[in-house]
Amino acid sequence: MDSWDIALHELKKKHFPDLGADTVGVFIVQNGRPVYFDEDFAAFLGCPVTHLQADPDPFGFIYPSDRQMVIQRFEKQPNGDKAPAIYTYRVVGHDHSIKWVEETCVHIRWENKPARLGIFNDVTERTSSEAEYHKLADHLSWSRKNEAVGTLAGGIAHAFNNLMMGMQGGVSVMLYDLSPDHPHYEGLRAIEKQIKAGARLTSQLLGYARQGRYRVLTLDLPQLVAETVEQFQVDQPGIEFKLDLTQCSTLVEADPKQFRQVLINLYRNAAEAMNGHGTITIECANVTHEAINNPRYEPRPGNYLCLKIEDNGLGMGRAIQNRVFDPFFTTKEMGKGRGLGLASVYGIVKGHSGYIEVDSHKGQGTTFHLFLPQKPKRQAAAAVRINPVLAKPRTVLYADDEFLIMEAADKMLRQLGYRILKAYNGREAVDAFGDHKDEIDLVILDMIMPRMDGGEAYDRIRSIKPDVKVLLSSGYGVDGPASEILARGCDGFLQKPFGIEELSSKIKMLIGEPACETLQ
């Protein structure tokens, strides 16, 4: 035994006199890096000790998602900074098996420099059950956080949509009969354009909250990918795309407009990570739920189409990956990003009963995996029956608890030539319908109202007159409570904010032209 081995032996004897049966190795860390592993630890990993000593990555044996934590703690140790004396993490054996070790360290002097002497104990059996518990606890915490943030995001979007509804209604009425050469015409159009931009912003929030407007069709996803790639390259000629979309079933059930937004947002995120120059690789595959690896998901069993979108950009660390789908989280400087692009991607994918995973390392690019359930093609929807025009005034019962929205609706309906009865809550709507059921052609119900919400009001109105036409209206999206009412036979949905043209189109589809008279 040479002097080096004697010194190490004395240190082990001094600091760890009673090594247990679980001890599987000894190591020394100096200047933030491991400088020595013994043969026992190499045997535990299933490789010769020379393999550990020659590995250019001294942390290569640590499980990837635990590596940064261990490195940070090693970096604190040379100067005696505070760091836990005992902690647990995963290591990867030469045969790719994953084991848990408990590391115990003490401060020493090695070759006249500060260092740490440590031992590894094998705690795989004990930690596996604990890890499963923490995994479930983490999943519950993550689910509750996302549910809370989604509820907040949906509430904000709903409130803003109601505010914009009042503005949109007033602008629509003023523009309806205004000549393009009027001095205020362009100004009003500019206001309307900004309202629509605000509506797109709230649509992203509703997407995260999974309360967006989904029009589910049988969609050829590779075709949509090709179309969006062509569209994107017009504005981003420095981005090269490599597509391999032949290895999977091509049809899924999805909203084409929403999934166009998903793809464009992911392309844009990749382009920004590559500073406008690089390669985006897109592939697809047929998989089962077992391919979904995120421990926070509990995927429904079945077959999925997996769409893989990979870039060769800057990549990101674990901390950013953990927050990348949070609304309003952005790594861009102030004023250059709202932090809603990937949040809306997450919400839209989840809203389609799908899952999304992100895998990234700094300097090694980023890969997103989208998993969409494969389902049989839906039957074509029955044609909408349009009532013939009758020679009598058309009367609309409009129910909404927001005064400004009611005023806007009143102006739009009168401008279009319809008569309007007003109700400021669900109970008033039911009472008004009971009193005027023979003259009311259409009911428009807000979803959220005091005293009685839109869902209960709808059921009571239909019990009075089963064939009356009813439209729902909401600052929230159609997915959620509104979809349940639509499934019970409600005739349509109006997403706030809407203008006079959309209102006119919806009403005409259900009850025809307004009437032969206009109320003033």
Structural write-up:
With 520 residues, this protein is an alpha/beta fold. It folds into 4 domains: 3-122, 2-Layer Sandwich (Beta-Lactamase); 136-208, no CATH class; 217-373, Histidine kinase-like ATPase, C-terminal domain (Heat Shock Protein 90); 395-511, Rossmann fold. Helices cover 42% and strands 22% of the residues. Strands 2-1-5-4-3 form a 5-stranded antiparallel beta sheet, with helices on both faces.
For the structure shown, list the relevant keywords.
five-stranded antiparallel β-sheet; Beta-Lactamase; five-stranded mixed β-sheet; alpha/beta; 520 residues; Heat Shock Protein 90; 4 domains; 15 helices; disordered C terminus
Roughly how much helix do the residues carry, as a percent range? Answer: 40-55%
Radius of gyration: 31 Å
Low-pLDDT windows of residues: 78-83, 333-339, 377-391, 516-520
Distance between the termini: 107 Å
Q: Which word captures the global form?
A: elongated
- Quaternary structure annotation: single chain
Return the average pLDDT rounded to an integer.
77
CATH superfamily of the largest domain: Histidine kinase-like ATPase, C-terminal domain
- The level-1 CATH class of the largest domain: Alpha Beta
- Sheet with the most strands, sense and barrel status: 5 strands, antiparallel
Question: What's the total count of β strands?
Answer: 17
Please indicate the percent range of residues in DSSP E strands (runs of 2 or more): 15-25%
Overall CATH architecture of the largest domain: 2-Layer Sandwich
State the strand order across the main sheet.
2-1-5-4-3
